[in-house]
Design a protein that fits this description.
Elements (H helix, E strand, L loop, with lengths): L12 H17 L2 H7 L4 H18 L5
Length: 65
Amino acid sequence: MPQNPSSSPSFSPSLFHAHSQEHEEDEMMCNRETRFLFGAFSCDSVLNSNFNSKSRAKHHQRTEF
């Protein structure tokens, strides 16, 4: 069964490239979908813990790590 990528309708290099870039941007931004998929173990949890420790420090004048 010979492979001919140029005639394959299910694969478009330009579309694949665009999707790859989108995915990378999503991971960098830690968007809501990424948070939903990875939960507390996403990079967003790091951002949230930093934010929370700062806001706690405002209220309690104390940071917990």
